[in-house]
Amino acid sequence: FYYFIRLCLDKILLQCVLQARTLSGADAINALRPFYFAVHPDFFGQHPKEREVNENSLKRLNGYLENLQKPGFRSLKPTQLTFYVRETEPNSSNVQESFSASGFRAVSFTLRTRDLLSTVLDILNSCSLSTEHVQNLNVNSQPLKEAKSTVNRPIKWDKTYYSFTGFKDPEEELEQAQRVETTLISWLDDNGASAVKKLKKSLPLRKELERLKSELSHELQLSDIRWQRSWGIAHRCSQLHSLARLVQQRPEVLKNVKGRTVVFTDRSGMSAAGHIMLGTMDVHHHWTKIFERLPNYYKLQKRLLFLEDRISELLGGIQVIYIEELQPLLTLEEYYETLNSFYNKLRDSRLPFHPRSLRGLQMILESDRYAPSLHEFGHFMIPTVCDPAALQWFIFAKAQEARENLKRKEEMMITEKELIDTSTEKFSLDRLYKEPSVSSAQMIDCCKRLLEESLPYLPGMHLCISHFYSVLQDGDLCIPWNWK
Question: Which positions fall inside the DUF4460 domain (predicted)?
């Protein structure tokens, strides 16, 4: 009994010492500013894949940090995160790294610490960021190195303490979590009830969102209302309420939106695809200016379509397209300048393409590549700086393969839709969808394997096929396409 009392007192004393060195939530945010600056999605606007990965990882990181600050918190399951960082200097060897095609460094690391200070230091160190500024956060009067070594040093309690008290051994839990690979069934068992609870809570807001979207689309005769990023339902409702107020206050400025698509995104203007972009950080004054400028945008769009036709004629009838899912979000002005520069280059080179010899083929222009390539879906990805002679040779060499890929794309799209419909019906899902970064081939593989299973918690749920496991704030279930 004396031995047990000593252990308890020692643990209480140590917890007091550690608590004195634990960062507050605000301190943690300040300490992580260099990290947020390096990985913030807004800096990856020209790179949709990297931006999406960072957005998703930041959501999971914020959830981890929030749980660390909850009263009565004991331990968390190890959480693996991947971020693209803007710097390209080599990192330490204990963190998995790779470089994307755009040149950003991909850093993967696993969070398994149980206090804010250790977690913040692990994040900064994993991304090769300085930790010196943490000393200025007044966490403790002792130097950072001493605090870090004290917090991170292994604490091993005698096993009799855990057997006597019934508390779980955190080290044993960690080892078990590392040994056991997450499976879809086990993850649904652990998180299904939480997702159901969040979904039920979000249902009134979901109905409100559909009502607002339907009313605005009907009143303004819009083709669609969309969101570029995965904002929560409450955030989307707020944006639609703002648009509805503008309609009431200035109905005359929205007379030219008929038949158009409105997209809520990070900046206002008109997109390369011809959609009206409303920046979520802009006030009504900025939105009003955009609506007033629509006639000029429509004129510029006609000139843009003319440029696409002229480029098509110079390249044997190949169609110039813009794919929102694969290309950065460009304004109409930015895309026009890109097309105009490419057209002038082609016109001066006078490439000998036979008229209409490449009809039925497609190409997209890219400003961040230097060599042409052929996408799996059959469209050519052509850099704006590509040498005309090299471009001609590449298109001729890959034309037949491009036609085959385009045909395969049509077949895959049909198969994908059939599998989505079948899976939705079998599991009684309210919605089954995928993130843009998940390819059709990956979605098909995922659905085929899902249909072989009998899965709990799915009736009435919203299931998103992604690259990781997560329960979104509104109850959507995210599972990786290559689930085990």
Answer: 20-129
